[in-house]
Amino acid sequence: MALQVIGAGWGRTGTESLKIALEQLGYDRCYHGFDLFNDGRKLQYWKELRLTGTTDFEALFNGYKACVDFPGAYYYRELLKQYPEAKIILTVRDPSKWYDSAAKTIFKKPDPIKFPILKWLGRISKKLSYIPQIYYHIQLFLYAEAFHNQIENKEEMIKLFNQWNEEVKKTVPAAQLLVYEVTQGWEPLCKFLNKPVPATPFPQTNKQEAFQKRIEHAIFSPTGTRV
User: Fold this and answer.
1) Lowest mean pLDDT among 36-40, 116-120, 192-196
2) When comparing pLDDT for 126 and 29, which is higher?
3) What mean pLDDT is predicted for residues 111-115?
4) I need a labelling partner for 158 at 20 to 30 A (CA). Which of 81, 119, 121, 142 fits?
5) Burial of 103 (0-12, 13-18, 19+ CB in 10 A)
6) Which pLDDT score is estimated for 38?
7) Is this model's pTM higher than 0.85 or not?
8) What is the DSSP string of the chain?
C-alpha cells in the first residue's frame, strides 16, 4: 500500500490532530510516532532508513495510507522519493510557542533509571524490550542530527525549526505541498486533499498535559503489539 500523504512538520505542531483528521478523511491508517512505541518491530526499518536512505517501505507502512510526526517527518525526502505522487503537509505554528511546548514534552529525555526496569520486563514482554532501543534511536536521529544537541537553547532551536520549514518549502513542489496550521481547521486541508468537509469539529488532541500519558499508554497498553 503506497503512502498518499506525508507529514513533514516537526512534533508539537499538531501532528496527532492531523493524524486523526486524516483518518477521518479516509487515510486509514496514519502512522504517527506513537505507533513506533506500539510496535517496536518496525524499528529495524527506521534504523535501516537512517543508515542507508532506504528500507523495505512496504513492510514498514503495511496497512498505512499516511505518515505524520517523527520519525517519518525527518525522512520526508526519502519518503517522497519512494512515493512521488504523495501529498506533503508541513504543519507549522508560532516558533516560540512551538519551543515552549516541545520543551515540556518531546525534549524531555526519559529517566535512565527506568531502562534497567524495562530490560527486566522485556524478558516477559517483547514489546517492552524495544523501548530502550527506540529511545536510543531517537537520541541519534532526533536530538543529535535534527536538533544538533541544542534542545536547551531556545534561540538555536527556533532557528533550526524555521530553517527546516523553509527547506521543506524549497524542496517539495508547490503543487504537492500544503503549509498548514491545525488551528485553520478542515477547510484548507480538505481543499488540498480534494475531500468534502466533515460535519464534525476538527480534532484537537495531545495537549501538553496529556503527552506523557499518551507515551505511557503506547508503551504499557495491553492492546499494544506484543510478539
Assistant:
1) 116-120
2) 29
3) 62
4) 81
5) middle
6) 87
7) yes
8) ---SEEE-SPTTSSHHHHHHHHHHTT--SEE-HHHHHH-GGGHHHHHHHHHHS---HHHHTTT-SEE-STTGGGGHHHHHHHSTT-EEEEE---HHHHHHHHHTTTTPPPPTTHHHHHHHHTTT-HHHHTHHHHHHHHIIIIIIIISTT-TT-HHHHHHHHHHHHHHHHHHS-GGGEEEE-GGG-HHHHHHHHT-PPPSSPPP----HHHHHHHHHHHHH-TTS---
Contacts 24+ apart (CB under 8 A), 100-103: 101/12, 101/208, 102/10, 102/11, 102/12, 102/151, 102/157, 103/151, 103/154
How do beta strands 177-180 and 87-91 pair?
A: parallel
**pLDDT value of residue 127:** 66
pLDDT above 80: residue 114: no
Other beta carbons less than 10 A from residue 116's beta carbon: 10
**Res 43 pLDDT > 80:** yes
The residue ranges of every structural domain in the chain are 5-220
